[in-house]
Amino acid sequence: MFKSFKTGVIAVILISSAAFAQAQKKISEGTLVYTMKNPEGEMEQKIKFSGEISKMELQAGPATIGILNDSKNGTGLVLVDVPVAQMQKAAKMSKADVDKQNETLGGGKLSDFKATGEKQVIATYNAEKYTYKNAAGESYEVWLTTDAEIPLNLLTGEFKDVKGSVVKFTGKGGSVTLKSVVEGKNEGLSVTAIPKGYEEITFEELQAMQGGGQ
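The chain above was modelled as a monomer; its predicted structure follows.
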């Protein structure tokens, strides 16, 4: 009986240690896969990250657009590659440029975070639901986990003041849900280094090319 009790205690200690190790897990480099939903439909979006630097790629007709962001300094880099036109352009974004784009897309300072007590497992992580308000005072929800520490990125950067890692949130444009996390090396991610073959232009010139100059 004592042996059985001792075995049980050891099992509890091992389980507790495993849970503690998971709670302390810090993921500093890899690939995040998100499911994004809006009234027009659903799509998957991959984001590569290394520390505070994250990158996502979008297809816009014949063009591949790479967007990089530094969540710590608030700066960015946009890469436009149009093979059929043999054109590669790169434009750095200052913090002011990034802030202006966020405001244009309905972003801004988030506030009034309140825990609801509702819990759910998302992408294998235990998460808790919070409500929050955007800059316009509209109410939405965000799910946070403390099982793992995942750096802020292009999609979650506005949640810099919360305690925990964002695994799901809703906003003006729809919902974003973390589907999976794969750890791995991502060398060369930078918002300051222009890749070989790309011509550097200003962000204003890039906006004008896209018909987005203001």
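The chain has a mean pLDDT of 88.
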